[in-house]
Amino acid sequence: xxxxxxxxxxxxxxxxxxxxxxxxxxxxxxxxxxxxxxxxxxxxxxxxxxxxxxxxxxxxxxxxxxxxxxxxxxxxxxxxxxxxxxxxxxxxxxxxxxxxxxxxxxxxxxxxxxxxxxxxxxxxxxxxxxxxxxxxxxxxxxxxxxxxxxxxxxxxxxxxxxxxxxxxxxxxxxxxxxxxxxxxxxxxxxxxxxxxxxxxxxxxxxxxxxxxxxxxxxxxxxxxxxxxxxxxxxxxxxxxxxxxxxxxxxxxxxxxxxxxxxxxxxxxxxxxxxxxxxxxxxxxxxxxxxxxxxxxxxxxxxxxxxxxxxxxxxxxxxxxxxxxxxxxxxxxxxxxxxxxxxxxxxxxxxxxxxxxxxxxxxxxxxxxxxxxxxxxxxxxxxxxxxxxxxxxxxxxxxxxxxxxxxxxxxxxxxxxxxxxxxxxxxxxxxxxxxxxxxxxxxxxxxxxxxxxxxxxxxxxxxxxxxxxxxxxxxxxxxxxxxxxxxxxxxxxxxxxxxxxxxxx
Length: 504
Known about the structure:
This protein is mostly helical. It is 65% helix and 3% strand. It folds into 2 domains: 96-103 and 118-305, no CATH class; 328-498, no CATH class. Strands 1-2 form a two-stranded antiparallel ribbon. Helix 18 crosses helix 19 (396-423), helix 19 (396-423) packs antiparallel against helix 20 (428-461) and helix 19 packs parallel to helix 21 (465-490). The longest helix has 38 residues, at 204-241.
């Protein structure tokens, strides 16, 4: 369970909304929602823990109705990444290690990899926590998304097994026809490998390794299947022109032109692989039969898989929510010590992540720290501070270094939350929670500024002009970020028509 019940409820409410929409499309009508779990009720100030208990029971019931195949169909390029991330958090925290839950998690993680928020953001690589193993931006993103998840650590054996996916990916890319791929047994081998990880399957390192493999394998499988189906249809078309109707015999059953005409390749690729595997094998066997005993002497035409059109410049959907201008002074006054403590823990993790990157990165590029949505640019003094070895000493240099660490981490957290806020406009509950987090960060930023100002005064008193300028620069960036947040939260949203026009 998460430390913040409201945050957990917002995540579950997002999953509930997605599930209900999916079921409505399936049954062709409204899905009755238990009392107290309606969207309007969830916005109230009722008993959060009681609502959470009811929500967990309701989602367990919905889980029984949602199959991985339904989830695969529902996850389209238009699906909001905020929804996918909420589902990933939900699946990883369920403590359900069944094949179905693992498959769902597998699908959502792969969806996030295939559809990054920023095109190309997974291509740059960072550095591992030990300074040698590469830590991909996608894994960094998963670590942030699943920061509160209680996931078992990877054993040395499991870490070694992860390295097999590079070899398996190369093997998948090497197949030149569908029959060779299916007969290789690679699908079963990978599934057994995933099962071997057990509870550790939900570890960010495992998901960050499997998602790129799934993407590469899925792309190659689709190409080979579409190629095989296209060649079979070419055989069928040529046979039909000459008056024939039976292409071949598969498992004792004659395959006719009509059977091939009814073949819907795109539909087969969207259903669950476990269900469709036998259908794929039949297509592969028919293609092999036709190659050995063609019904007519006509070279089949190689058909390239169709490339689905990609929307260019499509307008983003206008948010249905109508958010109010927030009362920031009241929000600041309502911040609790528990919220401060939770945020301080996150800031410590951000500091450690930046420290690891700066210390192992190429000195020429250590000032550009890849974050989830942006690159964090450090000044030379800030980068040096994150490389400092003895931060607990009482001299002026150590004090100045400490005064630089927290403003940088706070600015990074605030920028991340601000980006999350922008992306949560379709989810009022999540939008409000990100706004609450920003209010907590504004309170912390004030304290950080006061501490840095004291260090700045002492640096000036000792004539350390360079240290004073470095601290002042960091404080200025933090203040600019705070001002931007206050303006964002205090400014009314533009009218819907204006938002729609700007999205074009």
